Amino acid sequence: MKKILVVLFSLTLILVFTGCASSNNKAAEDTETKTQEVVTSNADDDISNTENAVENANEKDYDFSSYENDIRNITKSVNDAKTSTNASENHEQFYALKKQVDAVDDELDKLDDEFEDAYQMKEISFETYKARERAIEKLEDELELAEEALENKYGIDD
Questions:
Q1: ∠ CA(122), CA(123), CA(128), 5° rounding?
Q2: How far apart are CA 133 and CA 36, in angstroms?
Q3: DSSP states of the chain
Q4: Average pLDDT over residues 66-89
Q5: Residue 64 CA to chain centroid, in angstroms?
Q6: Has residue 2 got a pLDDT over 50?
Q7: What span, in angstroms and rounded, lies between the C-alpha atoms of 132 and 61?
Q8: Is the Cα dihedral 12, 17, 18, 23 positive or negative?
Q9: pLDDT in tens, 99-111
Q10: Closest of 105, 65, 120 to residue 128, by C-alpha
Q11: pLDDT band per the 50, 70, 90 thresholds, residue 84
Q12: Tens digit of each residue's pLDDT (9 = 90 or more) over 15-69
């Protein structure tokens, strides 16, 4: 009788451990399935992000031509400007041209702020933002050269 009880008890323990092991395997399989779902979900996000990156790459080509034209016109005006022997005429010409330089500079600053806001709101990618920022910096450098030429021509350091 003791042998039968020991055998039954042993079988019960074996079944209990086997049942727990199956249960753990089932839990592991469930976890693995959930992990696969998350990975699949992330893969879908990656595809979506890649598509957005392609769209944003096209947005990098923002049209800066109006600013380029404005800067080109200002540079031409500065180069064509003639100084006078009359100091008040020189001041008037200087400040008229300086006003044009400042207006374009202010527009570029606003545009840069708009791009920064768009990046922070996740409307454009970092790469697009940086490309546009570099383009603005290049335009500002050209504008600064025109301003320096203007100051040198009139001898006014503003």
A1: 95
A2: 40
A3: -HHHHHHHHHHHHHHHHHHHHHHHHHHHHHHHHHHHHHHHHHHHHHHHHHHHHHHHHHHT----HHHHHHHHHHHHHHHH----S-HHHHHHHHHHHHHHHHHHHHHHHHHHHHHHHHHHTTSS-HHHHHHHHHHHHHHHHHHHHHHHHHHHHHT---
A4: 93
A5: 18
A6: yes
A7: 8
A8: positive
A9: 999 999 999 999 9
A10: 120
A11: confident
A12: 555 665 544 554 444 444 333 334 434 444 444 444 444 444 444 568 999 999 9
Can you give the pTM of this predicted structure? Answer: 0.60
Q: Which two tokens stand for residue 14?
A: 């074996």
Retrieve residue 127's tokens: 């790469």
Q: Is-contact 39 110, C-beta < 8 A?
A: no
Angle between helix 65-80 and helix 126-154 axes, rounded to 10 deg: 10
